[in-house]
Amino acid sequence: MLREKSRKIKTPYYLIMPPQVLIWVVVIFPLLWAIYISFHDWNPTISPQRTFVGIGNYLNVLRDARFLSALGRMFYYSGVGVTIQLVLGTAIALAIVEYIRSPRWRTTVLVLFLLPMMMAEAVAAQMWTLLITDTGTINNILVWLGFSPVGWRAKELALTTIMIVDIWQWTALPLLIAYAARISIPDGLYESARLDGASKWLILRKITLPYMRVPLAIAFLLRFMDSYKFLDKVFIMTYGGPGTATELPTFYLYQTAFSYFKVGYGAAMSWIFGIIAVIAMFFFWRLAKRMS
Amino acid sequence: MKKVDWKRFFGILGLVVYGIFVLFPIYWTINTSFKEVGDVYKVPPSFIPTKFTLEAYKFILQGTGRLALSNSLVVAIGATLIAVFLGTMASYAYSRYPFTGLTNEGAQFNLLTVRMFPPIAFLLPIFWLWKTLGLLDTHFALIVTYSAFNLPLAVWLLKGFMDSLPRSIEEASYVDGYSFWQTARRVVLPLIGSGLAATVALCWIFIWNEFIIAYLLGGTDVILYTAYLPALRRGMRIMWNQIAALSVLAIIPSVIILVLFRKYLIKIYLR
Fold this sequence. Notes:
heterodimer, A: mainly alpha, MetI-like fold, two-stranded antiparallel sheet, B: mainly alpha, 14 helices, 0% strand
């Protein structure tokens, strides 16, 4: 009879109401408002007048060469950067398991390697800016050793420099995931493979990597998602420059909406960029699902 | 003669090289934070401060730096508490009761969207929301915005912990005559205590580390430390030692959390 009582409790809508209200007020409602605004031309610094332009803003965004090249940069920055993070992180994780035997050393090394991941993107960017300005530490060391200084923030190199900082900070995440996946593979598998005389290379290809495929796909997704989401590093290290050499879509969006105050245009761009981002995510999600 | 294990040698060497790559910028920041500003620009660079001084820390802890750090602390704690509190409610409901139609899929989709959309795409309308309400540059706006952005993460993490809790425990508690709220408070919450702690830690770190929301929704009256960092770089001569000192102070809480929660981090990310 008492069991009946527990079953009779109604679905507690009141438990999900407050969170849903918060999300609706702060996220969904403003987003809907953004749709409305995106059909208008509105620059609040010039006049409060909003002129209706239909889907004009959307068409202009899709023809905006600056937006499209920013999108191209994003695929280079996120695609190449995240791939390197994944490969490097996996390699380091496997090396830790293979070559460090004492558990205490393993934990120490792991905690040290995870440090960059725990700090703010903004802090990491500041720390690296000190190192890579023209008279920064790395160039100072290069000059001191007799090499010529490198223009880390020059046009050709700037985006790659930011990518290196991203690799520095975020290789830790695939590393952590790969490490966790590797130590969860039962030792017995390796024992029997060794007894069968399998080479280390074969063991890596036939046991270790297949086992780690799903976690690594998740790591790739998480990283890809975060690397196109954030603009902190670009904002602090180069502010999009020199010229537009490091302008990623998120940063261009920031410029449009908060420096040029083209609010309607910015809203249209948010939607287009958001949709592209979500499509890219679903594409990778499908890919990851098929792989596993 | 003992044979040298070359594979092991190169493996360890690789780890050491990566370790230097990872740790050098951190070491250099700590090094810089104890320098005088003239010492920062020296060639060849000084690998330990020529003159060890706490000037930079004094400057940060006496001026706007302290205000920025304490604002960050208030906002991060407030938003974390709200996000985790509401997240616990929602995740318990989602974990234990079937939600059909709009409440289920709609709710899940809301949460997913927040995670995948770039924050800057949200910020334009949110900025105007707070501006219209006259709440721009207040603790309130920052706390509410941050808690909304971290709620999906909290729900997602906590639902995992709740799902792994067998239902029979609650049923036993009902049999013992506990009410719904008593069960929630005395049985469920203590059992997922460690998961709750991990969720708090992770949400806190995300909020503490966030930059663009802090920069756009705050910045003048309520300045958070991430937004204060670029402000420090203005001027003819950049006071790198002060920037470094603020960075070091800002990293300390995260390092403490990393050391305390190192075991949970792996579990959380694997889900």
